[in-house]
């Protein structure tokens, strides 16, 4: 159990750091993105800037899910790649279909993946609200 908690806590910390850094990058680049959108898309500038930002945020979550999938494979909890990626994504998005389950010695990680996804999606939603506010 302590091994699961240690691994899960480490990956959560890594994912939080990744999201913080990549959101900070977007925060600093957003004014330039908005200006580019205004020159290129005119009337749809705000929509374009928000759409590009949302795609970027989805990319950030994709990186985080891939990290979880890699860890699941590395520790031998789920192999090969496709089931590990599927399980990580379903758990991260807190869907939890249950068609793939982890062995009892690693199942605590599934809950940690879900908690990580819940926190990071919540943060992303708050961040997107701020981006929309910045376009007004």
Description:
- The chain has 136 residues and is mainly α.
- It has a single domain, classed as Helix Hairpins (Orthogonal Bundle).
- Helices cover 81% and strands 0% of the residues.
- The protein is built from 4 helices and no strands.
- Helix 1 packs parallel to helix 4, helix 2 packs across helix 3 and helix 2 packs antiparallel against helix 4.
- The longest helix is centred in the first third of the chain and has 40 residues.
- The radius of gyration is 17 Å and the shape is elongated.
- The mean pLDDT is 95.
> Number of DSSP strands?
0
Number of helices: 4
Instruction: Please describe the biggest sheet, giving its number of strands, its sense, and whether it closes into a barrel.
Output: none
Low-confidence stretches: none
Features of the shown structure:
single chain, 136 residues, mainly alpha, Helix Hairpins, 4 helices, 81% helix, elongated
Topology of helices and strands:
Elements: H1 2-41, H2 45-74, H3 81-92, H4 108-135
Helix pairs in contact: 1-2, 1-4, 2-3, 2-4, 3-4
In short:
The longest helix is centred in the N-terminal third of the chain and has 40 residues, at 2-41. The chain contains 4 helices and no strands.
């Amino acid at each position: 159990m302590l091994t699961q908690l240690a691994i899960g806590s480490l990956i959560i910390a890594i994912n939080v750091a990744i999201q913080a850094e990549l959101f900070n990058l977007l925060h600093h680049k957003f004014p330039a993105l908005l200006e580019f959108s205004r020159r290129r898309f005119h009337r749809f500038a705000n929509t374009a800037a928000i759409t590009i930002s949302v795609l970027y945020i989805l990319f950030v979550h994709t990186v985080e899910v891939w990290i979880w999938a890699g860890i699941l494979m590395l520790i031998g909890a789920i192999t090969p790649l496709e089931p590990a990626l599927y399980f990580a994504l379903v758990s991260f998005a807190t869907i939890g279909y249950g068609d793939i389950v982890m062995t009892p010695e690693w199942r605590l990680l599934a809950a940690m993946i879900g908690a990580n996804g819940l926190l990071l999606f919540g943060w992303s939603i708050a961040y997107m609200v701020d981006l929309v506010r910045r376009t007004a």
